[in-house]
Amino acid sequence: MHPSLHNLKAYPFERLRHILADIAPPSELTHLSFSIGEPKHSLPDFLKGVLDDSISGLNYYPSIKGTDCFRQSAADWLKTRYGLKANGLDKSNILPINGSREGLFAFTQFRVDPTKSPLIITSNPFYQIYEGAAIIAGAKIKFLDSLAENNFSPDLERITEKEWERCQILHLCSPNNPTGAVMTVEQITKAIELAHKYDFTIVSDECYSEIYLDEESPPPGLLEVCEKLGNYSFKHCIVFHSLSKRSNVPGLRSGIVTGDQQLIKNFLQYRTYHGSSMSPTVQLISEALWRDEKHVIANRALYRKKFSVVTKILNPVMSFPEPKASFYLWPKTPIDDVNMTRDLYAKKNLTVLPGQFMARTSEGRNPGQNRLRLALVATVAECSEGASRIASYIKGL
Ligand SMILES: Cc1ncc(COP(=O)(O)O)c(C=O)c1O
Question: What architecture (CATH level 2) is domain 59-292?
C-alpha cells in the first residue's frame, strides 16, 4: 500500500457522523441540514433533450482531451466571463476533469516533485482534498490561517523566503469554502509575482466563481489577472472550474482545468495513463450548460434570497463576515463549535459543520474553532427555518 495512506485524516463528514452518533434528535421537528455543500436547486429543463441526443456517443472510447465542442464551449465561457481578449486561451489548453475534486487531486500528483523537499501552501480552513492530495504526493503542507484581521484571505506576507523557495504549489480558493471571502485583483497579482519569482504553480480553485451576491461585481479570476499583467501563456497559473455549483449538477462530475500552456500539455500526458476521460454524455450535457447563462443567473438570485433571509435572522445573535460569494456562512459561535453542533442536532434536529473540522491547528490555534460552516443549499423556507432554530438555540443559552 502507499506508505502515506495512514497519514490521511478522517474526512469532516465522517467526523460529523461520529460526534452525532449517540444523539437521538427530537422527532417532532423535521430534520434540516446546513452541513454538506451540495447544491439542490433544480436542473434547467433543456437538459432533457440533450440527454436523448447523447446516447449515440456511447459506442466509442472518449479521448482524454475531450471533444472539440466541449472544449470550445468552456473556452467561450471563460473568455466572456473574464473578458479575455488576447489569444492565450483557446480550446487547446483546456482539459475536461470529472469534477474539480478529482482534477485537483490528480494535478497535485502530477505537479509535485517529491525529490525536492516539496512544500504546498494552503489557506486554513481549506477544502480537504488539498491536504489529502499533498500527503499522497509526498509534500509537506504549510497552512496560512485565514483570519478576520486579513478579511479571511491568506496573508502571503507571512511566508518566509525559505518556504517560498521550497513551494511547488500555492492553493488559492476564491470565492472561498468555507469563509466566503473573495480575493482582490491586488492579492492575486501579488501571488502571480511570487510564483514568477520562486517558480511555483498557483492552483486556483474557482468552483464557486458563479455564486456571488452583487450581480454587478463578479469575483475576479486568476486568468483575467494574468492577462492584465501580460502573462498571456498563463505561466505558473492553473485554474479549476466546475459545473457542480454553477449549474447545480454535482452528480454530473464535470469540470475543466486550464491555464499554463506547458503544464496543461504535460498534464494531458499524465492523464492519458491515468485513464480519466469524460463520458461523451457528460460532455454533451456540459457543453449545453457552459453555453447557457440564464440558469446561472436564476441560481444566483435564489442564493441571494437565502442569504438575505438567513442573515436577517442570524445578525442579532451571531457575527459573521459579510457574505460576498459562495453559499456558505462562517459565523462565530457563542460556545465551542463541536458542542454547539451536537446541541443543535440534539435540541433542534439541525445538522451543521463545526468550523474546526475544516481547518488544522497551526501556530498554536485552529482558525475554524468557535465557528460553524452553514451551507445554504436547502430551500428558502428550510434555510429560514434552520436559521430560526439556531437563533432560538442561542437565545436559550
Ligand atoms: C472548494 C471546493 N473545491 C472543489 C470542490 C469539488 O467540487 P466538484 O468536484 O463537484 O467540482 C468543492 C466541493 O464542495 C469545494 O468546496
Answer: 3-Layer(aba) Sandwich (3.40)
Q: How far is the CA of 198 from the centre of ligand 1 (A)?
A: 28
Whole-number average pLDDT of the chain: 96
Q: Which atom of ligand 1 is nearest to the CA of 98?
A: 9
The answer to whether 225 and 232 are in contact (CB under 8 A) is no
> CATH classification of 5-42+295-395, choosing from 3.30.420.130, 3.40.50.720, 3.40.1390.20, 3.90.1150.10?
3.90.1150.10
Residues of the chain with pLDDT under 70: none
| Ligand 1 nearest atom to the CA of residue 255, by list position | 11
pTM here is: 0.96
Query: Which amino acid residue places its CA nearest to atom 6 of ligand 1?
Result: 101
Of all residues in the chain, what percent carry a pLDDT higher than 70?
100
Within 6 Å (CB) of ligand 1, which residues are found?
Answer: 37, 99-101, 127, 173, 177, 205, 207, 242, 244, 250, 255
Write the pLDDT tens digit of every residue in 351-375: 999 999 999 999 899 999 999 999 9
Q: How far apart are CA 42 and CA 247, in angstroms?
A: 9
Distance, CA of 222 to CA of 394 (rounded, Å): 40
Could you tell me the end-to-end alpha-carbon distance of the chain, in angstroms, rounded to an integer? 49
